[in-house]
């Protein structure tokens, strides 16, 4: 029998065998969060193992290293119950060694019950399409559905739904459904993310009551959200100060590039000048910002000007402590592919995409040393 240990954190707990071959983490409801499975033993050694991450709707993301190659994939729907079943076998083994109500809680989560979380998630949420990486463990509240622009050629996150603003009574029902879905696991989620795309564009007279409702249901949490540069009501510094007083702390901006012709080619409204104005207003109101830039976007045709003008824009932005600059490797999908083929825009080779990231990071170290810089890999997203 394998020897196991139980480690308790305030908002989660972990089961691990003493050999380090199995490490499983769970929320306070006993639902799987992550599972590291060291894997099979072959020719005197273990393989490098697989890490599974479970979303609230029981989607499973897996990743593993093979040599220098990092593999990641969505576990096919037909295989998910098998993975959950194998996970439960490990917990049953741990239960022989550890007597704890927490372990007993996990044993209640059969594969069938975990899969049924899909229906509970669908009752609480429209699809949660994307979040900034530092908000993956936020409480997501959908004050809007969809994206107010929804025409960028590179983005398909919200193409399945029209932009709508649910009335307050529907938003209240949504908040209660989210609270019921999370249960005790809400304590693991230390912030509130106001979704969907561009939710913060709502006029304050509509937005502020929704924010207050969210903080009443999930108290003690700061608020965050997406905003684009050019749609919705243009807020004054006083408007942003009002939102700061209501608990908003960081605004995430998909700036993508500092090269205006590339923005136009991507069918994204805005400009470098407008980005500077907006970030300046947000900072003047006491808010932190999370500008997002893509590396590799625009392929070989736009590469030189993308780098040159993005560096100019980064230098102009008034960034400092509390701000996060995200660099997101471009993933080609949606209408972008057709437009690129039509206009002869060839993709940038991966080493050159990495070089763009290196250049931007190095520049930010010099111009804005207090701001954080992080990669934003959309293929790693899970909620």
UniProtKB/TrEMBL annotation:
Entry annotated with the keyword Nucleotide-binding: no
InterPro entries: Aldolase_TIM, BchE-like, Elp3/MiaA/NifB-like_rSAM, rSAM, rSAM_sf
Superkingdom as given in the UniProt entry: Bacteria
PROSITE patterns from the UniProt entry: RADICAL_SAM (PS51918)
Gene3D superfamilies reported in the protein's UniProt record: Aldolase class I (3.20.20.70)
Keywords from the UniProt entry: Iron, Iron-sulfur, Metal-binding, S-adenosyl-L-methionine
Alphabetized Pfam families for the sequence: Radical_SAM
Sequence ranges assigned to domain Radical SAM core in this UniProt record: 133-369
Cofactor(s) in the UniProt record: [4Fe-4S] cluster
UniProt keyword Metal-binding, yes or no: yes
PANTHER family, alphabetized: ANAEROBIC MAGNESIUM-PROTOPORPHYRIN IX MONOMETHYL ESTER CYCLASE-RELATED, RADICAL SAM SUPERFAMILY PROTEIN
Protein name: Radical SAM protein
Protein's organism: Deinococcus antarcticus
Lineage, broadest ranks: Bacteria, Thermotogati, Deinococcota, Deinococci, Deinococcales
């Amino acid at each position: 029998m394998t020897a196991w240990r139980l480690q308790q954190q305030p908002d989660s707990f972990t089961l691990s065998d003493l050999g380090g071959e199995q490490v499983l983490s769970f929320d306070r409801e006993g639902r799987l969060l992550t599972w590291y499975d060291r894997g099979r033993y072959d020719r005197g050694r273990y393989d490098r193992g697989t890490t599974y991450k479970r979303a609230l709707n029981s989607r499973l993301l897996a990743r593993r290293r093979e040599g220098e190659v990092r593999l990641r994939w969505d576990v096919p729907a037909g295989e998910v119950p098998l993975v959950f079943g194998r996970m439960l076998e490990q917990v049953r083994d741990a239960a022989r060694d550890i007597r704890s109500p927490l372990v007993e809680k996990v044993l209640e989560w059969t594969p069938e019950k975990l899969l049924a979380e899909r229906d509970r998630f669908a009752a609480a949420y429209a699809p949660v399409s994307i979040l900034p990486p530092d908000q993956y463990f936020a409480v997501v509240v959908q004050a809007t559905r969809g994206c107010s622009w929804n025409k960028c050629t590179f983005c398909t996150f919200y193409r399945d739904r029209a932009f709508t603003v649910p009335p307050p009574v529907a938003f209240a029902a949504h908040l209660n459904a989210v609270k019921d879905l999370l249960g005790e696991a809400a304590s693991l989620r230390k912030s509130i993310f106001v979704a969907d795309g561009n939710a913060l564009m709502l006029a304050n007279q509509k937005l502020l009551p929704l924010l207050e409702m969210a903080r009443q249901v999930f108290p003690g949490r700061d608020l965050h959200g997406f905003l684009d540069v050019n749609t919705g009501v243009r807020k004054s510094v006083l408007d942003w100060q009002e939102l700061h007083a209501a608990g908003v702390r960081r605004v995430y901006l998909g700036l993508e590039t500092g090269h205006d012709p590339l923005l136009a080619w991507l069918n994204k409204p805005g400009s470098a000048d407008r980005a500077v104005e907006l970030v300046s207003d947000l900072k003047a109101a006491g808010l932190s910002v999370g500008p997002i830039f893509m590396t590799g976007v625009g392929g070989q045709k736009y590469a030189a000007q993308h780098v040159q003008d993005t560096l100019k824009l980064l230098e102009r932005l008034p960034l400092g402590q509390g701000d996060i600059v995200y660099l997101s490797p471009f993933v080609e999908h949606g209408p972008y592919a057709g437009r690129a083929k039509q206009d002869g825009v060839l993709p940038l080779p991966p080493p050159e995409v990495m070089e763009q990231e290196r250049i931007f990071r190095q520049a930010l170290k010099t111009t804005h040393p207090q701001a954080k810089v992080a990669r934003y890999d959309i293929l790693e997203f899970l909620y």
